[in-house]
Amino acid sequence: xxEFIVTEAFGGPGESxxxxxxxxxxxAYAGDEALGFWRxxxxxxxxxxxxxxxxADPRLGLVVIEVKSLPLDIIARVTGYRWDLTRAYFDxxxxxxxxxxxxxAQVLGELxxxxxxxxxxxxxxxxxLxxxxxxxxxxxxxxxxxxxxxxxxxxxxxxxLRTALERTPPVRYGQPxxxxxxxxxxxxxxxxxxxxxxxxxxxxxxxxxxxxxxxxVARTARHLHAFDLQQELIAKTIPPGPQRIxxxxxxxxxxxLAQKTxxxxxxxxxxxxxxxxxxxxxxxxxxxxxxxWLKQATNGEQSLRTAQHRIRILHAWGARDQPGFYRTLATxxxxxxxxxxxxxxxxxxxxxxxxxxxxxxDAQLTGRSLQVFDAVxxxxxxxxxxxxxxxxxxxxxxxxxxxxxxxxxxARDALLDTGEPEARRLIWAYDEAQSLDSLTIPTxxxxxxxxxxxxxxxxxxYRGGIRKSEVMNRCYRTPGPVLLAAHALGMGLLRPGGMLAxxxxxxxxxxxxxxxxxxxxxxxxxxxxRPREHSPNPLPTFTDTPLVTFQDHPxxxxxxxxxxxSIERDxxxxxxxxxxxxxxxxxxxxxxxxxxxxxxLRALRAANLGVYLPGNRDVNVPRQQWxxxxxxxxxxxxxxxxxxxxxxxxxxxxxxYVVGVDRVAVREDHLQLRNQLFVAISRSRGWVHLSGxxxxxxxxxxxxxxxxxxxxxxxxxYRAPRRRMDDDGEQSSRPWYASS
Length: 740
Fold this sequence. Notes:
7-stranded mixed sheet; alpha/beta; 6-stranded parallel sheet; about 750 residues
């Protein structure tokens, strides 16, 4: 089926004609196979302007349509491909629209052939004149430009437009694309074909022919994701106002926000853009991603280094030696930023929100503006909220309201006559299941209260079709059986007392990628299945061994002996590397997790295994204190990382050992501990081993066994949960901002 992407909303000068042609293209390809873009991002050394309309057609190849929304009387004369005008059209008195389209088609064809490894690809170029009929043109210029492909206002019907495209001679010749080549072309034009590949170092082969974990990891890493239209929509579109992105763990939220950041800069190099996140260990990952997308889009001509005067990669708080989002805005207002030791006791998030609230009050009292940025993109949005009223600002979440106030309003001509009082580009991504501190879900109403009407305006779509809210249901990182286990245990779906948290309707489960049978009435049975297309990690098809295992031990010493033996086997006969391929995550609240972390450190060091604790400067040592620290550190070459869940979030590994499940078992109805279990399991790209000490008489042990025995289909008896995670706004008749 045809798929179309509007990269930036219609409404600017001259765009009404482009909108008309784009809608005509959509109608012409209805029911057929095609991929279309309005203003496909294209940056080259020649500074070729992005094509007005790009069509990928398996029979015709690539077609570039250059739209000129100008009346006939503005064209004085036509000489060859050159048009002389009677008055300026976008500051130009001379046009060469076909040559412009031809150059774009040629460049795009070369890029697509190189990215998709195609032997040949046909490309075409055509000029569209949505304000001029063919009769009027012929009456004025006769046979002139008879060799230039053109489509006129009276030819924008499905049949006539398809005929015009088919009769357009190629700029570059090629044959119709076979199914494999068509798939490759779609990926080359989209995100999936250019996502940075993991480089997996393989050990020397072994004599026996069995597949080691290292071999399976390498095979999985070579797998390319199929074209994902939703990813393209999110990554390539620039909304004219706020947008929220709700995505399950492993759906690629961080990657897409990084690509969106790069696209915004390339298309609007004068914008000041901030990409903000909660976990300091993500600094390197996000910088590398933004740098990759800038280089990929410009053939290496631009990078994060060349864009650093406009793109700011900022930790939510910041420190003396590393500017952060809060500290940047405090400097803007002219106040001394608060430090952690100058805030009330509490979690890291609560301390940050206390500082944000104080900054908002300072700005309000002094009348100083916080406006610094043109766009703010927030990752890990679930960790930047809190339910405590004392941390709110005028019934709004303090961090988000501070971020909203840091934005310059979008220019009036970009509001597209929607009637909205103003708009600001605040874009945030979250997964409520990964919240480790607060149970508040960062929906529009939770963030802005009654101000949601002002922030979002009416309707679920911006003009042109860009959505104000996106839900990502496809998990690329975590294999399907592992993600199913993570959701089941994190929500307590099979616990004897009934589910603790979760979605309470079919639409909600379908939105995050599950097939659902049954009704959500108390006492009714519900069946969940995760189809393979929503969990495209191919590892389950490469091995028959279970990806999630569990073992109860009589005491911690026994648990740690088993952990050491398992890691030695991974690093030995299974051929894995200690860093980035093996990760140990410890559970527990506060000091509990750090106590288990210290025990794991001692056990691994006794076996002469390299160990790294996140935030340390050095390896093989207990937790270090400032200044012997590296707050951004999470991995060290040659060492296995041992991390609490709070620091592991946002990172991933091929094998994840979750230690200390007994800490959850003693308070199995504790929602934050259940969320810890979900986050820990969902860090895995492959295998997960759960372990605990003294679980024999604990209900959680039997619950885990029931979940693992369920395979790829989970059946549970529905009971209303304590924490509803529904997105009611998308099924409600209330205004979108009221509950979404």
